[in-house]
Amino acid sequence: MSTAYIELEILADFFNTYDRRTRFEGDVGEEHLQHSQHLYAWLLEHQLIDEQDEVTEQVLERALELRMEARKMIVNNEFDHAEDGWEAVNELMNQFAFTIRFRDDSAQLHPAHHDGMNGVARLVGLIFELKRNQMWHRIRVCSAPDCQWVFVDHSRPGTGRWCTMKACGNRAKNKAYRARNKQL
Fold it and tell me: Where's the Zinc finger CGNR domain (predicted)?
């Protein structure tokens, strides 16, 4: 799997820390980042911070804001309305600082932060790299209103609609089939 797809998987997992899949009517989903310790564990699991790094409630607020605003910018996201396009994300970017490191064969963006904020800034860097490499369209939101799971589209055209054809895709196609046959 290429580096871009690994980065996409990390971001999809980040977006899914707020699980919007509904289990019953009126279910608002499940927030997995309720405390700074939860964010610490998530960042550590994805190797975005070191064990000695500290994650504060302020860092958690930034991470939740980043998750909400960046999720709105997923290409096929019809569930979250972004009135100002990328402007909210761009405004949020003012809270992050980066340096550029050059090598013989590349240049890399490096966060100029410490502790947990460094991990959140690394997520921002992933978004930047995916946009720059024209891979952002590969991150998608499941079109099923009761799912909304964020997934990485591995299809050739990059136009996947459902997180999995076995569940959400199958349900949607069966619903459309029943609707067509009901009219006959």
Answer: 138-180
